[in-house]
Amino acid sequence: MCGLFGFSDPFHSLRTSQARQLLRALAECSMVRGTDATGIAYNNQNWLHIYRRDTSADKTPLYLPAGAHTAMGHVRMATQGDARFVRNNHPFPGYFGGLSSLRSPDFALAHNGILYNDQLLRRQLRLPKTNVQTDSYVAVQMLEAAGSFQPEILAQMAEQLEGTFTLTLLDRRDTLYFVRGNNPLSLVEFPRLGLFVYASTDTILQETLARLDFLQKQLYSRVYLEEGMILQLDAKGNISPHYFNPSKLWDSLYDIWLKQGHAASHSPRINPLDDLVDTACNLGYETEDIEILLACGYGYEEIEIMLLEPESFHAALREAYEIYAVYGGCGSV
């Protein structure tokens, strides 16, 4: 489990101090999803800057210059790739035409989730060897190999990934892309300001807004991001939806679940996501707690969000165990 966060201020409604406060609040409120590393990306003076550190958000200096009006951020809970090596942390730089220290990256990419077929894709697509150990980096390499950044290319890339993901990307034109897979993402728009703000969950967004006086009284609306959507948000505030087929994600996840030795009689609702179970166990819950909630019809995203809201999680868990006690299983209700 990692956290995605950021904003786009196409009309330059925020003062520099306010933009910095917003970025800081988003990063610190996102720490519930990861403290192993923190990173941001932004454009300034015709250069896409990427800043990454192997520290939690509250201990990471996050500087945003006056000329930056869009920021893309990530907090990491490391699952693959040692966070002490900055190259393994998000956001990752991507280059069309080869890496060069003399020019800006063409794009930055951040990922929330776990990819199970990264090594297979590298072999199948004959991607170059890399010292980046993180599974997410294969998405960068796939885009580099494609040599372009159209939504159609993003869709082709997304449809080949197996595991769990939601991706955010920022290009040199200050365009943000949200590639919504089977992990959560919440995006809101402040119409009067022309401001867009996003984070992995609604809870993180609400906690962020509660910290910021200049946004508390501003009305906002939610921008719906459905599974399989690629949302393009350009530097002028224009939104363009595009789509990819996400069915392979769930098919591959269930295949992995079966390969791990689980009975075929389990409902496809039961989710084989190791990061969800690991997160729950780290918070003091049991694997059985997650399995019962899944069997009672709760989705992966719902459970992930409830883990951040203990009262909601405990209430759902009590109800699920009561159903099991009375009916002998959620499936028999």
Mean pLDDT: 86
Strand ordering within the main sheet: 3-2-4-1-10-9-11
CATH superfamily of the largest domain: Aminohydrolase, N-terminal nucleophile (Ntn) domain
The portion of residues assigned to helices is 25-40%
Strand elements, count = 13
Instruction: Give the class from helix and strand content and strand pairing.
Output: alpha+beta
Number of helices: 11
Largest sheet: 7 strands, antiparallel
In CATH, the architecture of the largest domain is 4-Layer Sandwich
**Strand fraction:** 15-25%
- Order of helix and strand elements from N to C terminus: EHEEEEEHHHEEEEHHEEEHHHHH
Low-confidence stretches: 262-272
Ends apart, CA distance between termini = 32 Å
Task: Write down the overall geometry.
Answer: globular
Whole-number count of domains: 2
Taking Cα atoms only, what radius of gyration do you get, to the nearest Å?
20 Å
Gist of the model:
This protein has 333 residues and is α+β, with helices and mostly antiparallel strands. Helix content is 33%, strand content 21%. It starts with a strand and ends in a 6-residue tail after the last helix.
Structural account:
The protein is α+β, with helices and mostly antiparallel strands and 333 residues long. The protein contains 11 helices and 13 strands. The chain has a 7-stranded antiparallel sheet. A 6-stranded antiparallel sheet has the order 5-6-7-8-12-13, with helices on one face.
